[in-house]
Structure formats: structure tokens, C-alpha cells
């Protein structure tokens, strides 16, 4: 919020050339070879006001989508992917969605953003620490972008953040309800299968119990 206020106060009346130069300072850092550079600059882009983002919002979205991708080199960089998804949601909310918001994000670009969120939702990367992608999936759960399929049904199941989930059982009880929705059934099942094969004993037990109970109900 402080960064947002700074941009609004000092750059609103600057010429396009200066605004472009400012954006070009942040954009390369979002796909940097340094994770911390990605983490901070992604959030910076998400905090920018509309007059600055509209100078080149397609490039901003492209860079954030790239930051959210998993590659061999960035496999362990869960925090940067989390911040990229958070920033994408903020940028779309600030710029708006065309045609309801003139000059806003077009439908083709929006489809690519949805694909990025879905990829984040399906990410179950684990290492010796366990399920490091949980924070990425949480960011993919709560975007404020409009036109989400079965949005009202999701809102009736998933409470607004903070979710207040403290145990694996509470988490899986929630996802069992989401699995009833046709749009999300496949990705929830994918997550369950991954969790059942997890390195964490409590996660395995909770996911297995929830899966068994759900199967019995069907």
C-alpha cells in the first residue's frame, strides 16, 4: 500500500517515457535468476496504480505469468510463484477486464492468466521439507479476477481469507466439498493422489481418510 501511494503521488503526471522507464526497471527482475529479486519485484508490480500499469499491462502480465511457471531451475522457488499469482490477481483487479473496463485485460490474455492459475492449482512439488507448493496453491485459490467458473459455488464452500485452517483434516474436508463441482473435480483428485503419496505421515493419513470417506459416500 505504501508503494502504491508513492507511485500515485510522484509519477501520476510524468510523461509516458518516464513511466515506461520505471516499468522497465521492475519487469526484468520478475524473471531474474535470483529468487529474492523475483519475490520483491512481483509484489511491486502488483502494487502499481492503473495509470502506470496501462503503459504496458500486456508485458507486465507476460512477465508475471513467466515468473509463475515451474522450470528445472526454479522448481524450489515456491515463494516467487506465490507472489507472481498474487500480483496477477492484483493487476487484473486494478486494470480491469474488457469490455466492461475500457483498455482493460482482453479475453485472450485472460484465458492465459486462468491457465497460469490452474497450473498453480495443480502444482504439488515436494522436497525434503514436504509440500512446499501449498502456499502457491493457496494463492491460486483466492484470485479476485472475475469470470471464474462456478464462482458462487466456490464462495459458498471456501471462506474468504484468512481461511483459518489449522489441520490437514480441516483442509481435506474443504476440498472434498470442492470436488463435488464438475469444473474442479479433476484437479482436486490430482491433489489427493499426490497427498496420499506424500512424504509427510500426517498428510498421508488425512488425505487417505478423506478420500475413503468420500468414496464411500459416492
From TrEMBL:
It comes from the Eukaryota. InterPro entries: TBCD (IPR033162), TBCD_C (IPR022577). This is Tubulin-folding cofactor D C-terminal domain-containing protein. Transmembrane segments: none annotated. GO terms for molecular function: beta-tubulin binding; GTPase activator activity. It holds the Pfam family TFCD_C. Signal peptide: none annotated. One of its GO terms (biological process) is tubulin complex assembly. It comes from Daphnia pulex. Residues 142-210 form the Tubulin-folding cofactor D C-terminal domain.
Amino acid at each position: 500500500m505504501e508503494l502504491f501511494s508513492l507511485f500515485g503521488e510522484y509519477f501520476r503526471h510524468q510523461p509516458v517515457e518516464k513511466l515506461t522507464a520505471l516499468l522497465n526497471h521492475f519487469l526484468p527482475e520478475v524473471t531474474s535468476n535470483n529468487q529474492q529479486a523475483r519475490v520483491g519485484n512481483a509484489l511491486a508490480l502488483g502494487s502499481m496504480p492503473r495509470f502506470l500499469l496501462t503503459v504496458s499491462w500486456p508485458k507486465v502480465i507476460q512477465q508475471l505469468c513467466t515468473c509463475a511457471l515451474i522450470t528445472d531451475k526454479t522448481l524450489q522457488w515456491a515463494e516467487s510463484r506465490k507472489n507472481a499469482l498474487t500480483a496477477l490477481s492484483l493487476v487484473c483487479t486494478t486494470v480491469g477486464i474488457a469490455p466492461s473496463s475500457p483498455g482493460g485485460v482482453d479475453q485472450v490474455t485472460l484465458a492465459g492468466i486462468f491457465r497460469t492459475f490452474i497450473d498453480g492449482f495443480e502444482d504439488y512439488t515436494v522436497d525434503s521439507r514436504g509440500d512446499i507448493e501449498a502456499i502457491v496453491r493457496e494463492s491460486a485459490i483466492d484470485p479476485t479476477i472475475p469470470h471464474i467458473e462456478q464462482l458462487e459455488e466456490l464462495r459458498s464452500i471456501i471462506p474468504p481469507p484468512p481461511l483459518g485452517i489449522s489441520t490437514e483434516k480441516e483442509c481435506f474436508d474443504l476440498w472434498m466439498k470442492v470436488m463435488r463441482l464438475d469444473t474442479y473435480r479433476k484437479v482436486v483428485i490430482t491433489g489427493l493422489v499426490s497427498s496420499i503419496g506424500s512424504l509427510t505421515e500426517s498428510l498421508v493419513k488425512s488425505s487417505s481418510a478423506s478420500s475413503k470417506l468420500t468414496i464411500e459416500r459416492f
